[in-house]
Amino acid sequence: MEAMNLLLLAGGLLVFVSLLAGVYSARLGLSFLLVFLLAGMLAGVDGPGGVNFDSPLLSAWVGNVALAMILLEGGLNTRMSTFKRGFRPAVLLATVGVAITAGIVGAVAVWALKVEWKHGLLLGAIVASTDAAAVFSLLRQAGIRLNERVSATLEMESGLNDPMAVFLVLALIAMIKTDAGLSHGLMLLAKQAAFGVAVGWLGGAAIAWLLRKMPLGTSHGGLISLLILSGGLTLFAIAGLAQGSGFLAMYLYGLRVRARAEEAAHAAATALDGFAWAAQATMFLLLGLLVTPHDMLRAASQTVTIAAALMFVARPLAVVLCLAPLRFPWRQSLFIGWVGLRGAVPIVLALFPLLERVPGTARFFDVAFAVVLASLLLQGSTLSWLARKLGMVEPPDEPPPGEGSMQGRLVLDGDLPLAEVLTFFQLPLPEHDGVTLAEWLVAELARDVAEGDGFDWHGARFTVKEFQDDRIARVGITLAPRKR
């Protein structure tokens, strides 16, 4: 018991201090994820902690499950309007863009690391995917709202390019180990995509149907979140056993549940967000523990060359080539090209060749880790500045012009159409106005809703007044006089 308590003490303190440091580092434009990586490195073999952690297999297991949970949460948070608006550019960036990025970085790696072309392409595929969670967390911390088309593209791309990167990594590992040809890689790509789409789409529809039939309301958010998570992990395993992409299945599963059981998705949002944060924290701490900093320093010059090629050449060029046919303005293309932050996926993918004992890839984990650090430090710290410089920041919503002002307190039926209520009180409409007043409150609060909960909307206070059969029946509105 003493050993267990000491382990819990060390682990709890490490996470707690990392979270506190992350809150304050966000003011400098640094990602929470960077703080967890550095905390793991400080606790590791070269840091003051001196922990000699050397288990790539455990790290890969934890990393895969954590990434699956992150993609599920991302899918559940993606609205169908975002999906439709960002689908075409995101698919191009997640397929052609990833391939172009991997090719350019691979060519640089062949020259810098003196490896064969297959090994160079493997490293390029490892670092080719982006992490929108890091991007949007930094934007939220800075209070920045992006253009809807840019935001939808970045959000969708991050959910779709992870499976593509996994496809390429697995195909190149097979080509190196078995000397298989290009046709084998294309066959693997087709199989993973087909089974991943089928499992995620059909499984999402089935579980959404089940959630709609079950007697669960907004007060059962914790239970609903566990149902959604356990169902998703089941589908992730089924897709993997069928040799499909579990990552693609998880993302599509989240999208499908959000589209067909939106009330359940909103009720589970807060708990699932907590699960995703816990998964990210655990994964990044383990990856930080696994790395050996003095090994990274031995190849510092080659790593800097590869990171520079990725950030300044490969990613921007891939974005320009993919978005040019869709007539994206050059400012938007430049911004999307720069904010392709790297996160956990490249580091986890770098473990695959180690576990498969692919010859000549021992350095890839250290290189991928250093590339992620460089991306989070350089691109993350300049993201807010660049958004303002390029005019990507959307102004806050202003209330519609009106001569009169209203004030007072009212209680309304929760089933009233939202658009009619907000129009009557001269308040701006949200993105989705074809819902009821009660549904809007559930969507905005995005957690277990209780009587007395509320939020402000352009000078008006909306409050939950009464529940009936686990649904919001009465909504209170407090209106303050508007300045003219």
From TrEMBL:
GO cellular component, one term: plasma membrane
Predominant cellular place of this UniProt entry's protein: membrane
UniProt cross-references to Pfam families, sorted A to Z: CorC_HlyC, Na_H_Exchanger
GO biological process: proton transmembrane transport
Residues spanning the membrane: 58-78, 90-113, 160-176, 188-211, 223-254, 274-292, 304-328, 334-355, 367-387
Single GO MF annotation: antiporter activity
Membrane topology recorded in Swiss-Prot or TrEMBL: Multi-pass membrane protein
Compartment annotation: Cell membrane
Domain Transporter-associated: 403-481
Keywords: Antiport, Cell membrane, Ion transport, Membrane, Transmembrane, Transmembrane helix, Transport
PANTHER family: K(+)_H(+) ANTIPORTER NHAP2, NA(+)/H(+) ANTIPORTER 1
Protein known as: Potassium/proton antiporter
Organism (species): Piscinibacter terrae
Lineage: Bacteria, Pseudomonadati, Pseudomonadota, Betaproteobacteria, Burkholderiales
